[in-house]
Amino acid sequence: MTSPAPVVLVFLDPAFPEGRPADASQPQLLVTDLGVTRGDGVFETMLAVGGTVRKMQAHLDRLAGSAAALDLDIPDQDAWRRAISAAVARHRSQNPPADPAADELVVKLVVTRGVEGAPFPTAWVQATPAGAAGRRQRETGIDVILLERGYDSDVAERAPWLLLGAKTLSYAVNMAALRYAHKQGADDVIFLSTDGRVLEGPTSTVLLAHVEKSDDGTPVKRLITPQLDSGILAGTSQGALFAAAKAAGWELGYGPLEPQDLMDADAVWLISSVRLLAPVNRIDGKEIGTPSLQKELTAELSGLFAGTR
Asked: Residues 30, 98: one domain?
């Protein structure tokens, strides 16, 4: 039996300006916390490489946006930054990385509405080593299946109480979709709306690419993602990669996308903050794109993404 991955916890506490370290092996939450009983809270997941957290500001901004959608008061960004710094430093001091090249930590920010009637929310930072599965999928690619999400692509505007653009703790459906995919022999899922639009993965953003020749024979590369107003979570990784790709001369596009657009693409990826850029090999059992071109484009975009902060 393998030993559990080391976990470092730092709670945000008004009495501890730099954060309050806690023992992850001991109980820390009350069973009456609304994050436990109702999933009433929000979170963000970031990647720290060599002790440096990637895209911290983008994640803090999205955390604030998710909290606003829930009418949830959360600690300010400076408090989060101090707690993040403390958690990463504590983890690295307690668990010196054996391989600096593989020194990746998953840094999770969680805030719940707290115990009913409490004056403050429950908020903490959790730091754990990144798993090998994510790194492996970056290299080997993934197989995905298409699943209906159960909403049309306009519902987010009509029904903001569904919180489709917020990163909430209510992830039971997303995890159920992943378990269903695994039972079908796939690695991941791309959700579709009931009106046939491509949305997102349970924990990722969808990207696709087309490469065409211009009139003078030079390649024109276009990177496309689903429309952000279709009830999907705005991806911090997608935003960072789009900025880097634009600077490198790529053309950019935002849907609307249908399943056939995925099938016709030269390459498709799922991108997220921890797994990073994972090429899609097959969708519903059908091979996607051209393997050699996909490999070339993945290497180029991965290099651009690695340079983002």
From this structure: yes
Same-domain status, 150 and 126: no
**Distances from the Cα of 113 to the Cαs of 28, 70, 77, in angstroms?**
15, 10, 17
The DSSP 8-state label assigned to residue 89 in this structure reads H
* pTM to 2 decimal places: 0.92
φ, ψ dihedrals at 167, nearest 5° = -95, 85
Other beta carbons within 10 angstroms of residue 120's beta carbon come to 14
Q: Which residue, among 181, 139, 158, has the nearest Cα to 229 in the 3D structure?
A: 158
Are 209 and 248 members of one domain?
yes
- Look at residues 126, 167, 95, 117 and name the one whose alpha carbon lies nearest to residue 12: 126
Tell whether omega for the bond before 6 is within 30 degrees of 0, i.e. cis. no
143: closest CA among 93, 181, 197, 105? 181
Binned average pLDDT, 10 residues per bin, the chain of 309 residues:
77 95 94 94 96 96 96 96 97 82 89 90 96 90 96 91 91 95 97 96 96 82 93 93 96 95 96 96 95 94 89
Number of domains in the chain: 2
Select from 248, 191, 251, 244 the least CA-distant residue to 221. Answer: 251
Residues 6+ apart with CB under 8 A from 159: none
Amino acid at 293: L
